[in-house]
Structures are given as structure tokens and as C-alpha cells.
Amino acid sequence: MAASITPSHNTTPDRTAPDDSRATPPAAVEITDLAFHWPDSRDFRLAVPHFSLPQGETCFLLGPSGSGKSTLLSLLAGLMAPDSGHIRLTGQSLEQASRHARDRFRADHLGLIFQQFNLVPYLSPLANVLLPCQFSRRRRERAGPKPREQALALLSALGLDPARLPRDVRHLSMGQQQRVAAARALIGAPEIVLADEPTSALDQDHRDRFVDLLLGQASAHGASVLFVSHDRSLQQRFTQQQDIRQWRSDLPQESPL
Amino acid sequence: MTLLARLKLAAASLRHRRGPVLLTLITLTLSLTLVLGVQYLRSEVKQSFVSTLSGTDLIVGARSGPMNLLLYSVFHIGNPTNNIRWSSYQHVAEQPAVDWVVPMTLGDAHQGYRVIATNRDFFERFRYGNRHSLELASGRAFDDLYEVVLGADVARNLDYEPGDELAIAHGGGSTSFVNHDDKPFRVSGILAPTGTPLDRTLQISLEAFEAIHLGWQSGVPAPGRQVSAEQARERDLTPDSITAMLVGVNRPIMTLRLQRELNNYRGEPLTAILPGATLSELWRLMGSFERALMVITALVLFTSLAGLAAVLLTIQGSRNREMAILRSVGASPATVALLFVSEALLLVALAALLALGLWFGGLALLAPWLSELWGVHIALRPPQALELGLLGGAMGLALLVSLLPAWAAYRRSLSEGLTPRE
């Protein structure tokens, strides 16, 4: 048997062979040997030897501000390309993909939630939630025959009464805005939700409730969640915890979490 | 993303920023209206100028420059250099190539409005614009010796109606010390407005012109030789001379040959001109007026486009967050740039539609008033290809201008990813 063609066992993860999806579904996020630096900055180096988030699981990524979490998320979202290394999302490798294909992939498979100002100011809350269905046919199809109904259901499930929401998103409270953003990240069941400090602008009560609702709905829709925050008190709700500083090759390494 | 969804997004974005957008829309609309209006008036004025006289193949007068002949015979500006003999008129009328001849004698006026002495054929043969013939708004053409027909402006400005009496002054000026008030004229009819210099003239018969000058010598009444109005009727009123004549030919192909023959006429020195060609030549002389209009229009358009660029760039500067959100849900940098372009396109298209409505609506409303009050006749007609083309060109320029912020947005969304640095 030619071992070079079909390796029967792997002690180290094979980076090029396709995952055998029948045996184990591909990880939602898999990073190997990733290196990145900003061209204009010598003080910032990101190096991720290996990181894996299995499909359906949730990860808490601890990172104080300036630690490079937004950079990592931009790399994961395909908005920037790493210097070297590999990023696989749902088993698909994106480093060879064109910019257009990465935009396409992001529209189809990723939901993003920012720290604040998540909503397009001139669209109603419902139109904001439905936005991904406009850019992605896959998301539209996965949102059911009537995406509008799924959007309304998501808003309700996230504790918002769609009938009583103001039409102008600027009249929403911060907590309401973040929940609308969560509904937008989840509509059309993308495999991965990337959340960049979505609770930092919320008070304690709203923060806990938001994380509960987000994780509950993500689980209901089968989405994996990568949740970046500097707030350690949230980390126990996630199946996996990581500290982004362990990947900063230019920083002295602290003890891991 | 479907085209409709893109346009809806762009429309929602414009609605959101309605303050500056509305101001830009107003400036754009006004400047596009100006572009449209200038072009419209230019072509209308040229059209009405070049067709001040139509259907006449040749104008014949005493030997002079073609411009001069045109100016005094058609525009009633300046004075004839000389008269031509009645025998020359008869000679022309006898030419086999000639279909009709209308004689004209000039030289008198009424309160500054010039008098054309002619015959009844004038009302039949005179054509203007797109071969419009003259129409009487009221009354009828002159029939009796002392009857006069008034141009529309004359009747309106001097408030005459058929049946009124007036005296003709000797000479072409507005104040004259010598009047033919011993032989008053009765208004027999008033012409409908033509938008040509004819509106500012009066028409009497050649015989009437002779009658009021009986007993005159060297431009003044000779003492002791006065002839009363009734005595004049008994005299032979065949004129000795006329000022000019309008000639129609049997076949258009004969026109140039007849012109050459008349210019070489041995009986006396004549000048025959083609009215259309001379009118076009005269229009070209006034070309700098046209160019000045175009330059002003271009400047106005340029200013409003610069304003558009400023507004779009300002708006774009405050939209980084929105761009990051659109990028995060899968919009490509090109889609973001296209959003900016389609916003500008919507804005300019709306401005162009408003400009069309404003111009043609305004013209429909104001044309009767302009004609009534100022005697300015602007015909309402559908927009021409050139006007629509100009509007399209202005839209194209606006689109080019909008590429500037779109390009900035494109660059920004490429380099800044999801975390815009405000």
C-alpha cells in the first residue's frame, strides 16, 4: 500500500489532505502555523501554531485591547491574508482563494458581530437582519422559504418584539442593537459566528443575558461561536478558552489560562 | 445582490442623508435646467431666426450688400440704399422661371413701426417658420385704398382694433415732423403673432403709398400741390418704383440661375439674394453670442458638479462604519464602491427628470404669458436628441465625479477591513 497516497494514520495533522467528512465533520475553524505582521509595524507579530474549533462548539478568546484580536478576526473573515500558514473554515482553505471568493465565503458561512455600531443606520432593524440574505444566496435559501419570518423569529428568540421595535435603528438601546446584530449574524444559519467584544458596551445584566441568548440561538442553529472579549467572567460559558497573547510572538509569554 | 436590492439600498441611504442630498439635488436640478434651457433657446432662437422668412426663393432689391438687403427688407433694420424701377419689377414678373412676385415699398412708419406698402399677394405668399402662412387674428386684409393691416405687436402695443383710424408718418423714425395726417387710414385687420419682425410692421397697398405721397417732392409736401384724399382716388396710382420684391420660382432648381441673371440685369443694378443662405450667414455672424451662452452654461454645470463632488466626499468620510458593516455581511469592495456610484446615479437621474419637468412645465405655463407680455414667442416642442444628449452627458459627468468618493471607499474598504480607524 502506498502510504504517500492514503496515509493510514496521522500523528501530526495533515495540512493538505481533505478532511474525511464522513468520519468526523471538519472543524469550523482550523488554524495552522499562521504568521502575520502589519507592514508598517515592527512591534506586532501574530503567530498561531495551531488552533481548532470543532463545528458546533464555542470558544472564548481572551484579549485585552490592542492584543491583536481584531487582526485575527479580520484574517479569519478573509479580509486580510496571512503572511504564511493556513486557515481552514468548515474544511475549506481560503489562502489560495481570490478576494472575490473570500467575500463570497464570508457572506455564505460567517456571521459577524462588532463591539458597537453594528447596524446600517438607514435600514430598519428587520432590514438589517435580512442584509446577509441579500448578499448570499446560500444564506437566503437556508433562511427558509420566507427569510423575513426567520428574521422575525430570531428577533423574538433574542428577546426583541419586532412589532414594537422602532423603525429607526438609532432609536434602539445598545443592548437592542447588539441583539439585532446577533440576529443578523445567525440568519441563514452560517457555520461560524465571529463576535468581536459584542458585550463591552453593555452593563452586567444585559451582558449576561446577551451571551445566554447568543449562545442559545447559536446552538439552536448549529453555529460555532468564536467570542473575543477581555471580560474573563464570561469565559466559563464556552466550551473552549484561549488567550490571544499566547500567539503574540513579539510579547513575553504569560502563563496560559 | 440583485440590482433592485442595490438600488433600494442606495435610495435608503440617500433618504437617510436627505439634508445635504436635497440641497445637492436642488443645485443639480437648477444647473441641468439651465443647460437644457440654454440649448433649447439656442435652437429655438436660431430656428425662428433662420426661418424669419421661408417659402421665398429670392429677395431682389437695388444693388447693395446681401446683408443690407436682408436687414432692411426682412428685419426692417437700416434703410434701403435705393429703389428699383417699376419696370424692373415687371421684367422679373415676366420671367418664365418666376412663379410669383410680391413688391414691397418701404420708407414710412407709424409711431416707430415701419410700414410695408405691398399688394394683397403679400398675405398669400409671405411664409415664416415651417412654411406657416399669415393669418388674420381679426378683420381682413386691406381692400379700400386707405386701409391698413397691423402686425400683432403694433396692434397690442398701440391698442388698436379694426375700425380704428391712424395717420402714417413720413420717414422711418419714431418721431416725425411730417405726417400724412390729411389721409388717415382705417385698420381693416390685425395679423396673428408670427414671432418675426413682421409683427412690428403695418401693411398698406402700394397704391395707398402712392396716394399719400402725391404732391410731394424730395420728401416734403410741395406747397400748393396738395391732393385731397378723395381727389387721390381719381389719379393713376401705379408706382414708379418699389424698394424690394419677394420672388418665388416655379422649380427650385431655377433659383440659382435666376439669381445670377438678376444680378447681371442690364436695365439697372439689382441684387438678388437667397434668404435662407443669407439668414444663416447672419446667424453665424452672431455666433459669439451663442458661444458665450455655452461657456456660461458649462461654468454653471462645472460649479454644480464640484458641489456634488464635495457633498459626496463629505458624506463618504462619515460612512466608514457603514462600509465595514456591509463588508462584514459579504459585500465586496466593488459592491461598496457601486453603492456610492448608484447613489450618485439616482441623484443625477432624479435631477435630470426634475430639470425636464421644470423646463417643459415652466415653458408650457409661461409661454403664453411671455408671448402676451413681452412679445417673445417660444414654441413648445418635445425635447430634441441634442438636448437629451446634453442631459445624458451631464449625467455622465456627474457619474465620473461620483467615482472619486467611490474609489476612496473602495481603497478604504480594501485596506481597513472590519475595523475602520475613524
Structure write-up:
The complex is a heterodimer of chains A (257) and B (422). In chain A, the strands form two sheets. Chain A has a five-stranded parallel sheet with strand order 6-7-8-3-9, sandwiched between helices. Chain A has seven helices and nine strands, in the order E-E-E-H-E-E-H-E-H-H-H-H-E-H-E-E. Chain A has helices at 69-76, 99-109, 125-135, 137-142, 147-157, 174-186, 204-220; strands at 29-36, 46-53, 58-62, 84-89, 92-93, 110-113, 192-196, 224-229, 240-243. With 422 residues, chain B is of the alpha+beta class. Helices cover 53% and strands 17% of the residues of chain B. In chain B, the strands form four sheets. In chain B, strands 1, 3, 4, 7, 8, 9, 10, 11, 12, 16 and 17 form an eleven-stranded mixed sheet that branches. In chain B, strands 2-15 form a two-stranded antiparallel sheet. At the A-B interface, helix 1, helix 2 and helix 3 of A face helix 1 and helix 12 of B.
Task: Briefly characterize the structure.
The complex is a heterodimer of chains A (about 260) and B (about 425). Chain A is α/β, with parallel strands linked by helices.
Proportion of helical residues of chain B: 40-55%
How do the strands line up in the largest sheet of chain A?
Answer: 6-7-8-3-9
What's the multimeric state?
Answer: heterodimer
What's the helix count of chain A? 7
Instruction: Please identify the structural class of chain B as seen in this structure.
Output: alpha+beta
Task: State the major sheet of chain A.
Answer: 5 strands, parallel
Distance between the termini of chain A: 44 Å
Q: Tally the beta strands of chain A.
A: 9
Q: Give the beta-strand count of chain B.
A: 17
The proportion of residues in beta strands of chain A is: 15-25%
Label the structural class of chain A. Answer: alpha/beta
Mean pLDDT of chain A: 81
Number of helices of chain B: 14
